[in-house]
Amino acid sequence: MTIKEIDKKINLLFTDFKNFSYSNIFKSPYSFFGDLANFIKSQYLKLTDNDFVEINNIFNSFLLIEYEDWYIENIVYVGFLEILADEEIVFEKLFKFSSGKLKKWMIEFKNSEL
After folding, report:
1. pTM of the shown model
2. How confident is the model at residue 65 (pLDDT cuts 50, 70, 90)?
3. C-alpha distances in angstroms, 85 versus 60, 79, 97, 102?
4. 29-42 and 88-97 helices cross at what angle (nearest 10)?
5. 65 is in which domain, residue-wise?
6. What three-state secondary structure class fits 86?
7. Which of 34, 26, 31 is nearest to 3 (CA)?
8. With helix as H, strand as E and coil as C, how does 7-59 read?
9. Other beta carbons within 10 Å of 64
10. Tally of domains in the chain
């Protein structure tokens, strides 16, 4: 999956996200994924289990993009997980439905926060 496809998938899954965020995944990925974390927190009660499965799938696709590993890692840790972790219940819900590389990174993130 390309970044363009990830952007499209996020906007199809969360149709209100484009009204919530003016960040551009291509120009400011940190802001984009930070806004996505804030959007997920704000919509937590409306999101279904399937939405969390899809979020997991999107991030696992993002983590497979061949780019400089430190850059992708930084976006996921700093741009998304740190913001999402401000709401433990939301972080734990995504953790419950996470798998693959995202699950591994979430475990590492949780361990680093102890």
Report:
1. 0.89
2. confident
3. 18, 11, 15, 14
4. 100
5. 3-113
6. coil
7. 26
8. HHHHHHHCCCHHHHCCCCCCCCHHHHHHHHHHHHHHCHHHCCHHHHHHHHHHH
9. 11
10. 1
